[in-house]
Structure formats: structure tokens, C-alpha cells
Amino acid sequence: MHGAGHILEVFYLLLAAQLMAYLFRRLGQPVVIGEVLAGILVGPALLGWVHEGEILEFLAELGAIFLLFMVGLETRLRDILAVGKEAFLVAVLGVAFPFVGGYLFGLQIGFQTLPSLFLGTALVATSVGITARVLQELGVLSRPYARIILGAAVIDDVLGLIVLAVVNGVAKTGAVEFGAILQLILLSLAFVGVAVALAPLFARLPLDRLPVGSPVGFALAFGVGMAALAATIGLAPIVGAFLGGMLLAELREKYKLEEPIFAIEGFLAPIFFAMVGVRLELAALVQPATLVAGAVVSVIAILGKVLGGFLGALTQGYRAATVVGVGMAPRGEVGLIVAALGLAAGAVNEEEYAIVLFMVVATTLFAPLALKPLIAWAERARRVGGD
Question: Which CATH number fits the domain that encloses residue 218?
């Protein structure tokens, strides 16, 4: 497709996302749901005006990167460290419960061991972009439960990557490659650890005296660079973007970083969420076997994260702990990547892939719809000093 065609597709995505966001805001619902539905509307499933392609996929990835970079800018490291124990527990339990549940259910319905392992792995990693958008929209990023979700999402990504490396290694070679897994763990820990260690230095960084065009220009380059570095290591780029934003959080007011970066995010993030809808293959989701198995897997996926989040964050009170659990529920692109790897390795068939696709859709739609009333419930208790 020539350049004008790509521009037209971006226009359709943005227009549909804005109209649906307006409608959902008027209905009192999370706008992210409207943006996902906008992608379904203009995508191949319905109108067929927008199709998957490298340019749109790249813009969508940039949208996720800038969304988490912006969230990082609004999150100070000391606030994350203050809830570090809870974030670690939430991440570990939120990986263990869904993985075991998915694996056992796969065996129960007749899957072989390897497809069952891939099913469990697809349920592991949280797609924090959906939750981050809701937290940002409701203005609660400073709350302890929001910081637990964001901190847990970083740990969750590292743990999910390790589980995926183990299962993918078994699929390819029939054995666990301990050397490669150890290297992956050390690189991931080094990346996060160095970012944490450098935070005090970045808080004093004189952006206006650096040999760069502007403080905002430096911030943009730094955020994208951190995302690229994370991707090089094997982590999700959004983890690097979030850490990059967090390193600059202490400087955002001094150098007025927030407004221009928010403007860029406001352009790109709706493309990311709309492309979630464009990618959905509705025909694969309406097969009776897929509907039944997909519904059960979705329940396992949601309950696993909710239970892990609730138990891990219970020190914050049962209302905040419930918000954390639901906030960790979306799976998004991570689950699809796992299923696609299984498909490529011959360990997962089309039916099993469709079950994962159903789960991704269900958890993506469930979390924002459930989060809004749950956050209102938690905020009411906070205002009156209750649990």
C-alpha cells in the first residue's frame, strides 16, 4: 500500500478511537474499551478499512512505549520501593497460580504435556498497558495499589520471560537450557538493578546544560532508548520505557516534561489500543469448542491473577488488594506471542491458539470494566478512613 493509504488507515483508527472514546466517556465507562472496539469496527472483522501491517504495528508499539513512559514519569522510584515487598509477592503469586491452573486445565481437557505448558505460560504475563491507561484516566497513579501494580508488572515481565524461555527451550530441544536461562535472568536483573541504582543521579541531572537540543528532546530519546535496550535484552520494551520515565520523574516539573510527552502519548496510545481490536479474529472466537474452553481458561486466568494480587497486597487492605488483583488480570499481546511461538514450534494447534486468543480478549475487556467501580469502592473507603 502506498503512503497515502497508510495515512488514511491511521486517520480511520484515530477518528474511530476518538469517537468511541467520547461515547464511552459519556456512558461512564473506561475509554480504553471504546478504543479497542474502535479497532474491531474499522478492522477486518467488520468494515475492513484497516488491516495489520508493519507501519501500523510499529506505531502501535510506539503507543505502548509512550504510554508506559508517561506512566513512569508520574511514578517516583521511592514510591515503588516503598511497596516493593508487596509488588514482589503479587508478581510471584500472580505467575504461579495462572501457570499451574492453565497447565492442569490443559491436561484435563486432553492436551498433551507441551501444549498444556504453553497454555499455562500464555496465562503468566500481565499486559500492564490496559491497566495503566485506566489508572491514568482515573488519576490514581499515586495510590499505593497503583504503585504495587506497576512494580509487580516489571517483576512479572521478568518472571514471565523466564517461564517462556524454559517452555520454549523444551519445545525446541526437548531439554531445559540452563545456561541461556541463567544469562537471561542475570541480564534482566542487571537492567532493572542498574536503573534503580542510577535513579539518585538522574534526579540531579542538569538537562538544560547537556549538549542536546532541549530537555524534552533528551527525555524522548532516553525513553525510546531504554525501551530499545529492554527489547535487546529480551524484556518487553514497555518495561524499559517505564523505567526510563521513572528515572526522569524527579525532573518532570523542573523541565516541564509532562505536557509535551503527554501530547505524543495522546496521539499514539489510541493507535495501540485500536490495533488490539484490529488484530482480533472474531471468526475464530465463535466456534462452540473455543467458546467453552476459552471461557474456562479466561476464568482461570482472571482468578489466578486476582488471587495472587489479593494475597500479595493484603497488607494494603482488602479493597486495595482486590484492585491490585484485577489490575494484574489483562494479558494482551504477551499471551498471543506465547501462543504464536507454540504454533511455530508445532506444540500448539489452531484450536489451542484460538483458546488463548479468546482468553486475551476476555481479560483485556474484563479488567477496565471491573477496575473503574473497584477503584471507586477503594477510594470511598480511603476518604472515610476505612479499609
Answer: 1.20.1530.20
**Packed helices 128-137 and 144-173: angle between N→C axes, nearest 10 degrees:** 170
Does any domain span residue 386? no
Confirm whether 222 is domain-assigned: yes
The C-alpha atoms of residue 190 and residue 315 are separated, in whole angstroms, by 29
pLDDT band of 324, cuts 50, 70, 90: very high
Confidence (pLDDT) at 95? 92
For residues 146 and 327, give the distance between their C-alpha atoms in angstroms, rounded to a whole number: 8
Picking from 221-225, 282-286, 354-358, which range would have the lowest pLDDT averaged per residue? 282-286
Residue 298 is placed in which grid cell?
479466561
Task: Give CA–CA dist 89/72, Å, rounded.
Answer: 21
Whether 114 is in a domain gets the answer yes
Residue 387 lies inside a defined structural domain of this protein: no
Q: Which three cell numbers stand for residue 316?
A: 494494603
Show the domain range for 117.
3-380
Q: What is the distance between the alpha carbons of residues 307 and 97, in angstroms, rounded to a whole number?
A: 8
Q: Indicate the number of domains in the chain.
A: 1
